[in-house]
Amino acid sequence: MARMFLMCGHPGSGKSTYARELARKNGFRYLSIDDMYAAFNGDPTSHDNKFDVWMTFFRQIHAAEVAGQDVVVDTNAPTRADRFEFLNWFSSFEHYLIWIDSDEKLCLENNRHRSRVIPEEQMKNLFKMFEAPHFNEVYFNSTRSTWVSIMRVVNYNNSFIEVDIDGVFPEDVKL
């Protein structure tokens, strides 16, 4: 069964850096919502054409699912409802959630130094909206799709440390 590794966390937390490296080390397909916005709008910070961008993004994930490809999905998945939407849309994957946990100060600093700078006020609003994953998002004996595991990765001064896993993370995946 193909696996989906869904990234979640604050903007500027290092999700894309971690996700690209995870995909590269393991030969997984890498799909990024920022790349999709850039392709549609010429700018990853422009959220014009939102419906078309997300539908195309979901179609690419579905294509990986149908092809039986393991995929790393790079988006912030800020709320529990957002994350469950991925479970519901792509039910034939094994689902793994990777939460990049970083403090607001580091995220704001990282944001100032990247090419797709998000205005600080928008960053602070996104921080308020974020719902950290909770162990009860992992269910072991359910008939509906759930996370096989949730891994918490702390970004400490732009160094990643895998600290917690709720559930079972695949042993063959290189971190």
What descriptive keywords fit this protein?
175 residues; alpha/beta; Rossmann fold; six-stranded mixed beta sheet; 24% strand
Strand content: 15-25%
Distance between the termini: 20 Å
Number of helices: 6
Shape: globular
Which CATH architecture?
Answer: 3-Layer(aba) Sandwich
Physical arrangement of strands within the biggest beta sheet: 2-3-1-4-5-6
CATH topology: Rossmann fold
Number of domains: 1
CATH superfamily: P-loop containing nucleotide triphosphate hydrolases
Major beta sheet summary: 6 strands, mixed
Describe the structure.
The chain is of the alpha/beta class and about 180 residues long. The protein has one domain: Rossmann fold (3-Layer(aba) Sandwich), CATH 3.40.50.300. About 40% of the residues lie in helices and about 25% in strands. It is built from 6 helices and 6 strands; from the N terminus they run βαβααβαβααββ. The protein has helices at about 15-25, 35-40, 50-65, 80-90, 105-110, 120-130, and strands spanning about 5-10, 30, 70-75, 95-100, 145-155, 160-165. A 6-stranded mixed beta sheet has the order 2-3-1-4-5-6, with helices on both faces. β5 and β6 (about 160-165) form a beta hairpin. The radius of gyration is 15 Å and the shape is globular. The relative contact order is 0.22.
